[in-house]
Amino acid sequence: MVPTSVRVRMYQVGFGDCFLLTFRYAGRTKPRHVLVDFGTTAAPSGSPSQLLGRIAEDIRKTVGNAPFAVVATHRHRDHIAGFDPGTNGKGPGAVIAALKPRFVVQPWTEQPDLAVDAKAPPGFKGLAARQETLASLQAIARHAVDIALPRLQRSFQRTATAEQLAFIGEDNISNDGAVRNLMRMAPNDYVYAGKPTKLARFLPGVKVTVLGPPTVKQHDSVRKERIRDPDEFWSLQGKAFGLGDQSGSTGDRALFPGHEQTSGGSAPLWARWIIKSLRSAQGDQLLELVRSLDAAMNNTSVILLFECGGHRFLFPGDAQIENWEYALGQKKFTELLKNITVYKVGHHGSLNATPKTLWKQWYPQGAKPLAVGKRMTSLMSTKAGKHGSVASGTEVPRTKLVTALKKWTRLHSTQDLHGAVYVDEVFGIQ
Ligand SMILES: [Zn+2]
């Protein structure tokens, strides 16, 4: 059994992601739906106050009682806020849970059971430390927003920095309601690069490959060669905000080498100097710190590739180069990354989430853009003016990338949707 068509629906959530994939089958077989992320941190201007509630309602109507699965690529608010059932238990997350997803796909870094499973790959030995790292990053973001931001705002200086700090900081603050709901609504499917996912059996006739995130061990094997490779970024000066070695296996030294540890309340030892820094940092330094934390969380994103009927659909969440570099170093994966039909533009069009290695594979030097109808479709969910800055060449979406996407692909951006709730792209399969 092979799908007769695949529909990709991109909802207008402003700065965030919400994609509903519908695989249709011939005859009486019900369609199968996969929701990839559901969140926002900045709603589109003029949108209703209950934006996520309305989208949840549309998803409910679309899915009905058909088989349904959920993917939460990573823990950022702009990808999971919609899974929050709210304090009254009637929020959008409750609507999604009521659709009874068969399972929820999440990155292995979200796995709550810290016991080392004998069947797990050796890379799992760093799991506990890695998970503590991620939880602590959220605590640090909370500190930045609660302690440092009001001070910056009171000073009436560097307003742009304060706005950036508020935006990125809030995206990183733990969204417990959504996280718990994702854990409870269905059995979980925690994945890493190369691990078989439950999606494969759920979608007859569709091959599903997990390209990221790598495990600690997988990542370590390539990171030394390629970390902070300036050629991979959509900027003149490659400026990575990766955390370097964040495997957790070497504790505090892994995060910010050379810094002393100081007392910082309940935070883990290795994080205390950061909290001290947050208290005393000037705005720009503070923003840089919070950006580093933001990049670490983005790099836990699940990267999924769906293949059927000669079409390939690539959903990389917000994966940045440190996540991508593992898949891009594996021949079996790079072969799969050729001839993509739909590309969900990584990280809302930011400069460091569409690696140049990937791009050059699609559009090698000397290539010419295809006729519009034959091009790859790129779907970009974004809202300009929220993240990065034009002055530093870090604006999201990155102008250089958008120009290239317009020239080489068939680009749909949520910014062009105006009043529409979503845009659909349908791909028939002979
Ligand atoms: Zn995001």
Task: Provide structural commentary.
- The protein is built from 15 helices and 13 strands.
- A seven-stranded mixed sheet has the order 6-5-4-3-2-1-13. A six-stranded mixed sheet has the order 7-8-9-10-11-12, covered by helices on one side.
- Residues 114-127, 224-230 and 233-265 have low confidence and may be disordered.
- With 430 residues, it is an alpha/beta fold.
- Helix content is 35%, strand content 16%.
- The protein binds zinc ion.
- Zinc ion (ZN) is lined by residues 17, 76, 78-79, 318, 347-348.
Radius of gyration, in angstroms, nearest whole number: 21 Å
Tell me about the largest β-sheet.
7 strands, mixed
Order of helices and strands: EEEHEHHEHHHEHEHHHHEEHHEHEHEE
Give the amount of beta strand, in percent. 15-25%
Layout of helices and strands:
Layout: E1 5-11, E2 18-24, E3 32-38, H1 51-63, E4 68-71, H2 77-80, H3 92-98, E5 104-107, H4 127-154, H5 159-172, H6 176-184, E6 188-191, H7 198-202, E7 207-212, H8 216-226, H9 252-255, H10 272-280, H11 283-298, E8 303-308, E9 311-315, H12 321-328, H13 331-336, E10 342-344, H14 356-362, E11 377-380, H15 399-408, E12 410-413, E13 422-428
Parallel strand pairs: 3-4, 4-5, 5-6, 9-10, 10-11, 11-12
Antiparallel strand pairs: 1-2, 1-13, 2-3, 7-8, 8-9
Helix pairs in contact: 1-3, 4-5, 4-10, 4-11, 5-11, 8-12
This protein binds zinc ion.
